[in-house]
Design a protein that fits this description.
heterodimer, A: 303 residues, Rossmann fold, four-stranded antiparallel β-sheet, 39% helix, B: 357 residues, mainly alpha, ABC transporter involved in vitamin B12 uptake, BtuC, two-stranded antiparallel sheet, 70% helix
């Protein structure tokens, strides 16, 4: 456990988190094959409360397959998947949600034409009244959605506007606020910063830290080692479907992480290749640096 | 505005001091927000059509004509409602037209052949209709084929079975009359009676039509299931990922169409005592047209249950108005086609106006 376990924020969480050190979600040598394609093989991962586990990897490294297994969209074909120490085999995302595993997907899992508040509560609607006339508690849902969004620093004038009219960062924040609100114990974030600007990425990273302080175990999928290193407690690097690195924060530096992420030796080879292909560019590079100021000042009139 | 500010005062969040507005969106005017409702375009069109026939056909103005128009609209409108819900849920049902005939035939033939109380036939017909709907939904989910193909298949199966099975039992193209059987009068009073308001006789289907529309609207806007309908039509994968039972919702929607087919089938059976086995072909498009005129998006995820009511009303006005205006009724389909195009364009324009920021 990090020092976060004793922060006041952690005492606010109402659910009974397992004792320290006991992971909520654990993968042991898990893998997944689609027919004869082995997308993931021998992946071991543990997610504990109040810790951020970062999963890094380039495109096609198996990150998406990994989350799909944990979130119940796909099933693993080898190894073990344990929740609270019990082996599980989720067949629907609903089962994962019931175990407290909430996922914020890359494509945000929102329905663009539906209002913000309906999206916020989609699949877990608040209702009132006995069965034949059981209906949505719209006032309470709108109020709760507004409070939760404000707590995350998202202020919307009109919760009735279709969520498709929000910006990417806003939608991402709504999705995170949603997952946090629904009492998730484990929050899976699939490249939450990939489509965002610098400032909005910072906001999302802040929410990741906030979720961690509330006692959630966070799985942060990214291909940006800088973002990962800002909040991560443990780093797993995937490459070509297998684990290349699994290290805690004090065992690895940002530089090492970046190297592993890019594939160390491969990167060197790639650099060499690039230098050959883009020979002209390399020559021009220093020139460009030198000339930045004048060019920016007067691009046309120098000639 | 009150919605946004009221909860803020009770907000425990320290991050939002008092009322804090985003400020990048301005409150849209009432007129513009009204235009954003899916059925407003259809309502404007309905008023236009009404005024048109009101001036063009003097006999259209009588109260009795209105009752006829409403009857015409209700028989189609009762089916258009579940078809519209299914469309909002992102699917089509091309078998809806002949499913009505299937249901009526089932009740008629079963009651007659077994010489049982007609209510037995009515119940069995309901089970058969729901089963046809469930089969459509199940096949759609199992195969992953588009609903257009799946229900085109079931359309042909039902159409053929209607003709063939009827011939096996009656040697004819129509079912035997069941008017002298036990329970017929009782069933007729439920499905095909009339009621009078101010001296004008209305068919009871008009009442059911409006009742079903009200229930469907409540279901769509005020219940969990309604939320799911919009979600599975708007983005099926997202809906599944956040825990919406997508398959259950779709199957239930198809079964809803089955239930509608059963109700209309029972009405036709107890109105006319017999059923022509070849009927119903082509009606599935009328239901879809009513839904589209009523503002339902062909691609799903958007629409209302009031829209198809207005769409069916336009249909009723046009089909009867042409008669009252003493025009050649052959023009009806052409008129309907023009209406469909105009309605689709008006809807497009209205939505564009309303969502423009």
């Amino acid at each position: 456990m990090t020092t976060n376990g004793s922060t006041p924020g952690a005492t606010l969480t109402k659910d009974t988190a397992p004792e320290d050190g006991k992971p909520i979600v654990e993968l042991r040598g898990a893998g997944k094959s689609y027919g004869n394609v082995r997308a993931l093989h021998g992946v071991s991962l543990a997610v504990s409360p109040s810790r951020v586990t970062c999963v890094l990897g380039d495109n096609g490294a198996g990150k998406s397959t990994l989350i799909k297994i944990i979130s119940g969209l796909h099933q693993h074909t080898e190894g073990e998947f344990l929740v609270d120490g019990e082996p599980v085999h989720f067949t629907t995302p609903r089962e994962a949600l019931d175990k407290g595993i909430a996922t914020v997907y890359q494509d945000l899992a929102t329905v663009p034409l539906m209002p913000v508040w309906r999206n916020f509560f989609l699949g877990s609607e608040m209702t009132k009244g006995p069965w034949p006339v059981r209906r949505l508690d719209i006032a309470r849902m709108k109020k709760t959605a507004d409070e939760e969004l404000r707590a995350m620093g998202i202020v919307l004038d009109d919760l009735d506007q279709p969520i498709g009219t929000l910006s990417g960062g806003q939608r991402q924040s709504v999705a995170i606020a949603r997952a946090v609100y629904f009492g998730a114990r484990v929050l899976i974030l699939d490249e939450p910063t990939a489509a965002l600007g610098v400032k909005q990425s910072g906001v999302v990273l802040k929410y990741i830290a906030a979720a961690r302080d509330r006692g959630l175990g966070v799985i942060f999928i990214t291909h940006n080692p800088h973002h990962a290193y800002m909040v991560g407690d443990h780093f797993s690097v995937l490459r070509l479907g297998t684990m290349e690195l699994s290290a805690s924060r004090d065992e690895v530096s940002l530089e090492e992480l970046t190297n592993h992420m890019a594939g160390g030796a491969e990167l060197a080879a790639l650099k060499h290749e690039l230098a050959q292909v883009r020979g002209v560019d390399v020559d021009e590079l220093p020139e460009e640096e030198d000339l930045t100021a004048p060019v920016a000042a007067a691009p046309e009139e120098t000639s | 505005m009150t919605q946004a500010t009221a909860p803020a005062t009770g907000s425990p969040s320290p991050a939002s001091p008092a009322v804090h507005k985003d400020g990048r969106t301005t409150e849209r005017s009432l007129g513009r927000r009204l235009l954003a409702r899916p059925e407003v375009g259809a309502l404007i069109a309905a008023v236009g059509v009404y005024v048109f026939f009101f001036t063009a056909a003097p006999s259209f103005r009588e109260a009795g004509s209105l009752a006829t128009v409403l009857y015409q609209a209700s028989v189609m409108g009762i089916m258009a409602i579940p078809v519209a819900l299914l469309m909002i849920g992102g699917e089509f049902d091309l078998s809806a037209g002949v499913a009505v005939t299937t249901s009526a035939l089932t009740a008629a033939i079963l009651s007659f052949q077994l010489t049982v109380n007609v209510w037995t036939g009515v119940i069995v017909a309901l089970i058969v209709s729901l089963a046809v709907g469930a089969f459509n939904g199940w096949l759609l989910i199992k195969t992953g084929l588009p609903s257009f193909l799946v229900t085109l298949g079931s359309f042909l199966i039902l159409q053929g079975s209607n003709l063939a099975v009827t011939k096996i039992f009656t040697g004819n193209v129509a079912s035997d009359s069941i008017s002298d059987m036990d329970g017929f009068d009782q069933a007729k009073s439920v499905f095909a009676s009339e009621f009078s308001i101010g001296g004008v006789n209305f068919k009871i289907t008009v009442f059911y039509w409006l009742l079903f529309a009200a229930v469907a609207t409540w279901l769509l806007l005020r219940t969990k299931f309604g939320n799911w309908i919009f979600a599975v039509g708007g983005n099926k994968d997202s809906a599944r990922a956040v825990g919406v039972p997508v398959y259950l919702t779709k199957i239930a929607l198809f079964m809803g169409v089955g239930a509608g087919a059963w109700f209309v089938g029972m009405h036709l059976l107890f109105s006319f005592n017999t059923v022509q086995s070849g009927e119903g072909v082509g009606n599935e498009f009328l239901y879809i047209i009513a839904a589209v005129i009523g503002g339902c998006l062909l691609t799903g995820g958007y629409g209302s249950a009031i829209g198809p009511v207005i769409g069916a009303f336009i249909f009723g006005m046009v089909s009867q108005g042409i008669v009252y205006a003493n025009w050649n009724p052959d023009w009806f389909k052409a008129f309907l086609g023009v209406m469909l195009l105009v309605a689709a364009l008006v809807n497009l324009w209205v939505r564009h106006q309303a969502t423009r920021r």
